[in-house]
């Protein structure tokens, strides 16, 4: 389904406001630590959203991402790829084995030939910051708006809000 440019702006605003509603306000600003240059066989990872930079050229072991062409894992020396994020959870496995799980609403994934990876999300929040009750409430509201949509534009915007809210509820329940 192709949307008019003015509708894309409205949808982007709707997605941001939905995520900000269900995310607890625990944002902390800090200076990025200087990252060491990755060695052969390592993967430099950058993950940023409008609300926070999660990783800045840090070396990680693996990144699992949800995309519209299917969920996939990224390891060092992954084939160069450009994909579109769909609402879901990005899982980052750091070199020490620790995993970080971050919900994303949308965005892009770029895997480069030099094993560097960039995830640029429209909106992103760690799973521990998601409020399940608020997410369930947002889902109910989005479903109600979908059912009462008066025209195709409203129906399309509500359908996107329902999809994102369903994924937030699923992520918050994990």
From TrEMBL:
Molecular-function GO terms, alphabetical: proton-transporting ATP synthase activity, rotational mechanism
Coiled coil: 132-159
Protein name: F-ATPase delta subunit
Alphabetical keyword list: ATP synthesis, CF(1), Coiled coil, Hydrogen ion transport, Ion transport, Membrane, Mitochondrion, Mitochondrion inner membrane, Transit peptide, Transport
Gene Ontology, cellular component aspect: mitochondrial inner membrane; proton-transporting ATP synthase complex
Domain ATP synthase F1 complex delta/epsilon subunit N-terminal: 49-124
Family to which the UniProt record says this protein belongs: Belongs to the ATPase epsilon chain family.
NCBIfam families: ATP_synt_epsi
Principal subcellular localization: mitochondrion
Record-annotated F1F0-ATP synthase delta subunit C-terminal domain positions: 130-171
Compartment annotation: Mitochondrion inner membrane
SUPFAM superfamilies found in the cross-reference section: Epsilon subunit of F1F0-ATP synthase C-terminal domain (SSF46604), Epsilon subunit of F1F0-ATP synthase N-terminal domain (SSF51344)
Provenance organism: Pararge aegeria aegeria
UniProt key word Ligase: no
Name of the gene: jg7947
Keyword Ion transport: yes
């Amino acid at each position: 389904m192709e949307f008019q440019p003015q509708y894309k702006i409205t949808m982007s605003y709707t997605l941001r406001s939905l995520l900000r509603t269900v995310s607890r306000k625990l944002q902390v600003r800090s200076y990025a630590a200087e990252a060491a240059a990755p060695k052969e066989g390592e993967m430099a990872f950058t993950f940023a959203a409008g609300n926070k930079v999660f990783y800045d050229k840090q070396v990680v072991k693996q990144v699992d991402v949800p995309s519209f062409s299917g969920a996939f894992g990224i390891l060092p020396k992954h084939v160069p790829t450009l994909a579109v994020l769909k609402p879901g959870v990005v899982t980052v496995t750091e070199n020490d084995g620790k995993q970080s799980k971050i919900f994303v609403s949308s965005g892009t994934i770029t895997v480069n030939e030099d094993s560097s990876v960039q995830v640029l999300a429209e909106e992103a929040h760690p799973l521990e910051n998601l409020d399940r009750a608020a997410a369930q409430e947002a889902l109910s509201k989005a479903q109600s708006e979908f059912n009462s949509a008066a025209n195709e534009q409203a129906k399309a915007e509500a359908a996107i809000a329902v999809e994102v809210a369903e994924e937030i509820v699923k992520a918050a329940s994990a």
